UniProtKB/TrEMBL annotation:
This is Copper type II ascorbate-dependent monooxygenase C-terminal domain-containing protein. It comes from Actinoplanes palleronii. Residues 25-53 are annotated as: Disordered. It comes from the Bacteria. Transmembrane segments: none annotated.
Length: 383
């Protein structure tokens, strides 16, 4: 139960109900490999890019190793740790390099900026929870809107914000480091992790373009593959199982989320979401789990001037880096962002982590054996 502190050198999420759709037919699947998106890689990260003018590094790490334990009979542990970069004046977060100490069990990590009240609440939750950090499925585990300012998933190295831009970090800002631990692998039980992160911080004396992260989800309604059967192939049973492992709010999200309760099972799902106001998109990423085949993020599809923001026709779980766009894209109020994902239940029999699990109707869920379809955009609003 300790706040992470320096150890060495120093968007509003647009989750609006929208029009969604699905297609029961599957596009041509990417050719299967002997080990399609294995789920984890453990390669050494390259050295960071040299500091840009006005930047410095702040290195943070867990003060002691944490041993993940999956609650509620699941195989996933979402653990939040309070991070204190010890900022005494206005600053900007202009880049980061997460350092997963045990890549065999670290599925992904997200960093949320907390306001002072949220930081106080997080510290109280931390103090009341035995061991390092606290359980936090789905978010930072504190009340109110938090700002997503950094994340890591397999394949990501150092993430640099575009020159002249960054996430605002007022004096005293703290972060929540949420780590998703995947314990599906044989031998994962009892393993420990002591991950850290190197933040790239710029002084606030020179104003930079203020960034925010916008999240665009789409539903998952993936039936069992042909020839599969079992109790969890029933959607109601699968939804109840997700609620058991991650809480009743997960079930509510499934029913009242983007699909507004309209369920059309199929391999491919999409969601159209309106843009609230003018902004510039600088970076993009897509996130799915192990059954993902493809993901695409589009602007105003089917309308004059439509653009593709991100297109990953052969999704690889081990390559999820947040990438800068070749050219920033301008959006305005009334524009539409569409996220489309294709998943493949047949991959379940090809992946060692999933082969031992019973077949299931796959819905949106926090677990590695569940699925997601999430577009992640780094944006800036006009000054």
């Amino acid at each position: 139960m300790r706040i992470l502190r320096p150890v060495a050198t120093l968007s509003t999420a647009l989750l609006l109900l929208a029009a969604c759709g699905s297609s029961p037919s599957t596009p041509a699947a990417a050719p299967a490999t002997s080990n399609p998106h294995s789920g984890h890689t453990a390669t050494s990260a390259p050295p960071p890019t040299p500091l840009r003018t006005g930047e410095r590094f702040v290195d943070l790490a867990l003060p002691q190793a944490y041993t993940p334990q999956a609650p509620n009979g699941g195989t996933d542990d979402y653990r939040c740790f309070l991070v204190d970069p010890e900022l005494t004046e206005d600053a900007y977060l202009t880049g980061s390099q997460f350092q997963p100490q045990n890549a065999a069990i670290v599925h992904h990590a997200i960093f949320y900026r907390l306001d002072p009240q949220q930081a106080t609440e997080a510290a109280a939750v931390d103090a009341q929870t035995p061991g390092e950090g606290w359980t936090c499925f789905g978010d930072a585990g504190v009340e109110g809107q938090t700002a997503w300012v950094a994340h890591w998933a397999p394949g990501a190295g150092e993430t640099l914000m575009p020159a002249g831009s960054g996430f605002t970090m007022p004096p005293g800002s703290k972060l929540v480091m949420q780590v998703h631990y995947n314990l599906l692998e044989t031998g994962a039980a009892g393993q420990t992790d002591q991950s850290g992160i190197q933040l790239r911080v710029a002084a606030g004396s020179t104003p930079l373009t203020k960034l925010s992260t916008a999240l665009f989800p789409a539903p998952i309604e993936l039936p069992c593959a042909a020839g599969e059967s079992g109790p969890l192939c029933d959607r109601d049973a699968a939804v109840a199982d997700v609620a058991k492992r991650f809480g009743e709010e997960q079930e509510k999200h499934l029913i009242e989320g983007c699909s507004a309760g309209k369920i059309t099972p199929g391999d491919t799902q999409h969601c159209d979401q309106p843009v609230e106001g003018a902004a510039t998109i600088y970076m993009a990423a897509g996130h799915m789990h192990l059954l993902g085949r493809s993901i695409k993020i589009e602007l105003n599809p089917g309308r004059p001037g439509a653009q593709t923001i991100l297109d990953v026709p052969q999704y690889n779980f081990d390559n999820q880096a947040l990438v800068p766009l070749p050219k920033p894209i301008q959006v305005k109020a009334g524009d539409t962002v569409r996220v489309t994902c294709t998943h493949d239940a047949k991959l379940r029999k090809m992946l060692p982590q999933l082969q031992k699990l019973p077949p299931r109707y796959v819905v949106w869920g926090e677990g590695t054996s569940d699925e997601m379809c999430l577009g992640i955009l780094v944006t800036a609003r006009p000054a």
